[in-house]
Amino acid sequence: LKRRMLRVLAEKKPDVLVFTHPFPAGAAALLKRQHRLDIPLVGVITDFAIHQLWVYPQIDVYCVAASQLKDLLVEQGIDAGKIVVSGIPVRKAFEQERWHWDAAHKADKNVLIMGGGLGMGSIKQSLTLLDRLDAVDSFTVVTGYNADLYDELSKMRSELHHDVSILGYTNRIPQLMCQASLLVTKPGALTCTEAAAVQVPMVLYSPIPGQEEANATYMQAKGCARWVKKQEDLVSVVADLLTHPDKLAAMSEASLDCHRDGARIIGKEIVRLLRPQTAGAAADLIYEH
């Protein structure tokens, strides 16, 4: 990656580099160690876990999702003064929608099933299992960019007992989360953070081993999600939640403790690196525009 990064740096001439993935962060850290790069590096860790590939002394600021991640970085030798607990940034649309149990949810208990933008996770399996439930009135399934899954679900829709709305990639996720009584998804950190911002209750299923398991552990510990580890438990957990709106409301309330205004906090840190004397006012001005 070093050669490719040097070409990008020569073309763009950036004042700061911000990374949301460890591979390019590692390449930039190596260039900095070799004195071939001398601008600030910011690592934005978009999971509720720390991977060793993120740990480089050359990174000037780390923005992490939660306070325990700061502790883990300190344990791995990173100066605490370089670590900011920012939360994970999400689009402002997720800040403008709020879930709450109301008459519409009671009249149509809709389950939203997602697997991130790539339509990963056990979406078909989840839909097939939950279609047995009388507690569910309808489903909305988002397949993202997974066209094969979209076609497969469209073909099987006539065999299902419930009304199912199938969507590909859509920018209406905040609205769909608000309309749903419950979200069933694999625990990608961005999806979990978006759901926490909207405050929709979550059931987490079929995590990718490693990072996503850590995400599920974090969200369940906070009380805003239930992590289902076995296929046979998915139906019983969803049925229990849909027949106890008080549990859904408690999970929604717990989501308030899982979300920070990550974009604003990270923006301020970047401006502070570039303009240390006017960081506060400049960051607010940039954020508003």
Overview in brief:
The protein has 289 residues and is α/β, with parallel strands linked by helices.
How would you sum up this structure, described in words?
The protein starts with a helix and ends with a helix. α12 packs across α13. The longest helix is centred in the C-terminal third of the chain and has 13 residues. With 289 residues, the protein is of the alpha/beta class. It contains 13 helices and ten strands. 39% of the residues are buried.
What does the average pLDDT come to?
A: 90
User: Any idea of the CATH class of the largest domain?
Assistant: Alpha Beta
**What is the distance, rounded to the nearest whole angstrom, between the alpha carbons of the first and last residues?**
33 Å
**Architecture per CATH nomenclature, i.e. the level-2 architecture of the largest domain:** 3-Layer(aba) Sandwich
Structural class: alpha/beta
Number of helices: 13
**Adjacency order of strands in the biggest sheet:** 7-6-5-8-9-10
Query: Which regions have little confidence, pLDDT < 50, spanning 5+ residues?
Result: 285-289
What would CATH call the homologous superfamily of the largest domain? Glycogen Phosphorylase B
Domain count, please report it: 2
Largest sheet: 6 strands, parallel
Strand content: 5-15%
The Cα radius of gyration reads 21 Å
